[in-house]
Amino acid sequence: MTLVHRVLHPSPITSLAEYLERGGGRGIEIAADLKPQRIIALVRASGLRGRGGAGYSTGRKWQTVARNRSPVEPSTVVVNGAEGEPGTFKDRTILRTNPYQVIEGAIIAAMAVGADLVIVALKRSFEVECARVRAAIAEITAAGWSRGIQLEVFEGPDEYLYGEESALLETIQGGYPFPRVSPTFRRGVFKLTVEEADAGYDGVRIGSADVHTTTSAAAPHVAPALVNNVETMANIPRIVARGPAWFRTVGTKRAPGTLVCTVTGSTRVHGVGEVRIGTPLGEVIEAVGGGPRPGRWIKAVMSGVANPVIPGSLLDTPVSYEGLAGIGSGLGSSGFIVFDDTVDMVAVAAGIARFLGIESCGQCVPCKQDGLVLADLLAKVCRSEGNDHDLAMIRRRLVTITDRSRCYLATQQQNAVGSIMERFAEEFAAHVDGSTAPAEPLLVAELVDIAGGVAVLDERHRHKCPDWSYDVVYSGKVPAESLPGTPAPWRT
Ligand SMILES: Cc1cc2nc3c(=O)[nH]c(=O)nc-3n(C[C@H](O)[C@H](O)[C@H](O)COP(=O)(O)O)c2cc1C
Ligand code: SF4
């Protein structure tokens, strides 16, 4: 049995009463009798690693946030439900199926790090999930479960960078999703008092480029935020209720537990399913996506657009952080986009470069400029209008794109596009010498839904401009210079 059900229940849980009947709520009960340090110790001992992409130790992160507490201002817990990675739909599936365990995990996290507020950060366009989480919060609050911790839903924009944790906090604070210089454990969500708000004080004036740190005598009011992915939080209640040893009964030594994986692309069906960490990639694709389409073979797999491409010859690789790193790739948020032998890999590279080039915020000049040039050159090669000089220019831009980059997005271009060029060099050459038919860049975009076994991509991305507008004529500006003077709709 490849599929398991630790985090993703086989059928939706429709009420708090049903959640409690099925054993939910034990984590909070046990945590209430523990000191914060003991809760953190349990999470550390479990070996849980963040499921949002970076795979950082959850217990260590909690420890750091707890240590960086402000002497006067409570910390905040933010559940990252932005889910913007192309090919990923697991967080929305978890929230649709059982929002209670995610909120229970976040309340336990707040108890552990000394937070008085939990914000579940979703996107305004995630209407189903926003309604489901709000209804769950109402039930939990009415049942007195939240123990004085305030629970809120924040509805953010569709931009990819909104999911980057410091950009998420920037957005919650009323700004735009621009990654910050200060990490989240040093600068969380700046909460205005009623008096400050009445006096017209604007917390947003502390911009993403400013360095503000907790534990600084000059800024005692700067409190950190704990940001964890939806799936990470969903694992917490049972770690506390059943203990770290139980959690470690599945998975690998370095990465215990399960993963909720999304499989899309050239498979019989698209879907989301939970597997033990360490399950071979081919088995995951078979169990969740039904394997390749009839008569076809898998040429390559991408785990989102953050990591190097996985060639089809390595499908026996264990799906784990260390397994995928061992073949020069990465796990990301376990969203596997499958490409069979009919797919043009130059079109894939061109689609990824466009997605990342458009979504770059432009705070770091090389990331935006090189990203857009890469997208243009790759589209040219894809349409079989390019030459060897264009290929050389693409390689050069892939080197400079990460210069002075503040967040990981620029490196993603290097990883994803660079690896496709290296692994499938013959396909690029065939476009240049005209032996392959011209093609259009593949649409690479966030998933809007997976309905009836078919993934629905955000088609609007085809028309998105580099300034993040959908205007017919591109302004020529980048988001970092065109947006700050414009009030954001989510600003309160
Ligand atoms: C460009 C970019 C986009 C990201 N998008 C998401 C996202 O949509 N959801 C998410 O949970 N993490 C996303 N991340 C990762 C977060 O920055 C962060 O690592 C994560 O929320 C931490 O939670 P975890 O420790 O539980 O994984 C993104 C990172 C980058 C660089
Ligand atoms: S690296 Fe790119 S996306 Fe990240 S902050 Fe800089 S310009 Fe923005």
Describe the sheet with the most strands: 5 strands, mixed
Secondary structure: number of strands:
11
* Structural class label: alpha/beta
The order of strands across the largest sheet is 6-5-9-7-8
Number of helices: 19
Helix content: 25-40%
End-to-end distance, in Å? 49 Å
Bound molecules: flavin mononucleotide, iron/sulfur cluster
**Global Rg:** 22 Å
Which overall shape is indicated by the principal axes computed on the Cα atoms? Answer: globular
Protein model, in words:
- By secondary structure, the chain is α/β, with parallel strands linked by helices.
- It is 39% helix and 13% strand.
- It has 19 helices and eleven strands.
- The chain has helices at 16-21, 26-32, 36-46, 58-67, 90-97, 99-113, 127-142, 165-172, 194-198, 230-242, 244-247, 281-289, 321-326, 345-359, 365-382, 388-400, 409-423, 425-432, 479-482, and strands at residues 75-80, 115-123, 150-156, 225-229, 258-265, 271-276, 298-303, 310-311, 335-340, 447-451, 454-457.
- The chain has a five-stranded mixed sheet, with helices on both faces.
- Helix 17 (409-423) packs across helix 18 (425-432).
- The protein is globular and about 70 Å long.
- Bound molecules: flavin mononucleotide and iron/sulfur cluster.
- Residues 161, 179, 360-364, 367-368, 405-407, 409-410 line the site of iron/sulfur cluster.
